[in-house]
Amino acid sequence: MRAVVGLGLVAVFTLSAPGNAQTPTPVPLQAIPVDLRATIAPTPVVAEGQRHLVYELRVDNLGAQVLDLRAVEALDAASGAVLARYDDKALDAIIARPGAGKLADRRAIAGGMGAVLFLDVVAPVATVAPRALAHRLTFAPLIPANAPGPQSTVTGGRVEVARARPVVLGPPVRGDHWLASHALSNDSSHRRSLIAVDGAARISQRFAVDWTRIGPDGQVFRGDPADNAHWTPWNADVLAVADGVVVEAVDGIPENNPVADDKAVPITVDNATGDHVVLDIGDGRFVTYAHLRPGSLKVRTGQRVRRGQVIANLGNSGKSDAPHLHLQVTDGPKPLASEGLPFVFDRFTLEGHLASLSMLVDGTGWRPTEPAQDRRGETPVRNAVVAFPDR
I want to staple 177 with a disulfide (CB 3.0 to 4.6 A). Which of 101, 214, 342, 380 is the partner? Predict the structure, then answer.
């Protein structure tokens, strides 16, 4: 309707003033000196019937004045529809100031400084995903005495939504009661692990999952917790999630004592993944299996593997507090020097959710309280408990 009315007004104006055409008034430039840039093109990924667009927005203040960020909106770039809005506590929850130390107000961005916004635009899977996103940010300059000035908005940071689908994987382990710790969530430690390596800041663990297994008693260990063998998931078979080629296989890093403060070896960027395997599964996708049991690797660099093949056993090496399998997919072969990509499993059974990690060690224990659900083509959310086929 607006387009028709607009054309009508142009026609009337032209007829009433022939030969006196005027150029349209240009849209005024937005004078707020900020640079908005998305770090990646988000790929839609589905979890429990919801579509997630997970990415980050960098905000750099190129002016001299302190800018107080008041609100952030993610928009459909085509229609301008607001897809997500963050203000007040919701904004506090998504903003980070890497390298700035402890700040009284993370939303006050000084001249020459920047911030990172961790965004997760969520919608029911039945809705149509936008082809591109834009962002509208509301600022108020902090004038002397930290008194806020008049609010202004800036729209920018356009980013295309990736058309590719997440890679579909097979089971990384077998059996039931596998806890997807630090899985899909906008505030997990994996999600916020922005690491600068080789001159670039990336989040290789953006969609990573730490798999640990809950025992029949609802606990993750019994007996002496200092002994890795007393933990339910320890030494479980680790499986190739797809056909691929081993591009890295590291063995020989000793396991940690789960209750000790110090690791078995000083942790560096090179050994943080512990004993690990990296598979090239094609199309620029690489799967990392980290913290494996030393001496358990059954593959070597250059070897081709088939989906379902046992490649190692679960352990507690590297930067790991307890036996678990760290699984991630990235766009490069270096586990920390690459960007994390979403992935889904062809099939798993959702057995329920864990309310708190403390339940696994304080004697409470986990018990299923929800009907089991067959999920296909999804990734698990944080603290989902799932079962994979035994074969």
Answer: 214
pLDDT at 104: 77
The model's pLDDT over 75-105, given as tens digits with 9 standing for 90+, comes to 999 999 999 999 999 999 999 999 887 887 8
In a domain? residue 10: no
Domain final residue pick, 160, 188, 211: 160
Does 212 reside within a domain? yes
Confidence of residue 148 (pLDDT cuts 50, 70, 90): low
DSSP assignment of 193-257, as one string? --EEETTEEE-TTTT-EEEEE--TTS-SB-S-TTSGGGBTTTT-EEE-SSSEEEEEEE--PPBPP
CB-CB contact of 213 with 233 (8 Å): yes
> H-helix or E-strand containing 2?
helix 2-16
**Burial class of 278 by CB neighbour count within 10 A (0 to 12, 13 to 18, 19+):** buried
CB atoms within 10 A of CB 153: 13
Q: Which strand (E) or helix (H) includes residue 386? A: strand 384-388
